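Morning F.,

Quick status update on the modeling queue. The single chain you submitted on Monday has been processed. Sequence for confirmation:
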Amino acid sequence: MIRALTIALCVAALPVAAHDLRVFASVTGETVTVESTFSSGRVPKGGEIRVLDANNVLLMTLEIGPDGKTQFTLPDGAAETGLMIEVDVSEGHSDYWMLTPDDIAHGQGTN
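Structure tokens below.
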């Protein structure tokens, strides 16, 4: 009985885990790449990326690319303060990634 309940709870949890949004951002030179996928590897169908500065000021809003990747030019001043990258997808999930000044310096090869 307990074994059956344990199995049922594990199986019931699978759909929730399959929809976990994953966000990763990196810098190469002056280009920021944001990758958005679900934990299952599936690419979100629609959604937006918001890029904010260290003062929580919205710098730009971008669409998620068809392959889950979006690129943009590093905004002026971001190397000194960092960036907050928020992703909201049409399936109702959201996540974020923080690019610190050290992350940016490393990506620019100035570390």
